[in-house]
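Homework help thread (please don't just give me the answer)

Our assignment gives two proteins as sequence + structure token strings and asks us to describe the second one. The first is just a warm-up. Here they are:
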Amino acid sequence: MPIYEYRCHDCRKRVTVYWRSFSEIETARARCPVCGGQDLTRLISRVAVLRSEDSRLEDLADPSNLAGLDENDPKSMARWMRKMSREMGEDLGSEFDEVVDRLEAGENPEEIEAAMPDLGGGEGFDDHGEM
């Protein structure tokens, strides 16, 4: 079932028109479902693309996406972390938001880690990199 969006020039609404078939679009004239007017202009609809988690992770790892990332600049790290969060489409929780907010404010990661000893669930690494 083809679906098209139109702008109605009579009632000035953006409307959606459902067609029974593609051949009907060629032979019939669209009518505004709000006011019944026929003075419509077809609009370009938004398109959503579903991507796999692997595809999103590949994009994040692409070196061109790391341009401008300065690991010594907390604000740069915060921008990248927000981008990563949006790409993954998951809520990473209030701890994540707090860390990113503090990075955006210019606080360095060591200060944040010292102020939040239970960061990441409380299981940290010892001096030898072991849990």
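The one we have to describe:
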Amino acid sequence: MSIINNINKAFDHRIRLGIMSILMVNEYADFNMLKELLDVTDGNLASHTKALENVEYIKVEKQFIGRKPNTRYSTTKLGALEFKKHIDALEKLINKQ
């Protein structure tokens, strides 16, 4: 078995890795919080959250706070499981050296 078997392609971009890292330690994060913490553009963040949503690793909730739209994200059970497997695989890879 290859030591990179559990490295997940969905997390191979630093922004997606950042999104998942933030969501793993917070119950949820809204668009602006992710944008600020990751220091990315709206379009960049939107495309990466969409990619994670498409593989069902994050859940998206849209709501209004007052008159302002608010989009918040949280991990799904599948997303949390896959991210943990990914991190474990990276640790194994690093520790092999």
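TA reply:
I won't write it for you, but here's a hint about the kind of observation we're looking for: The two ends are 17 Å apart (CA to CA).
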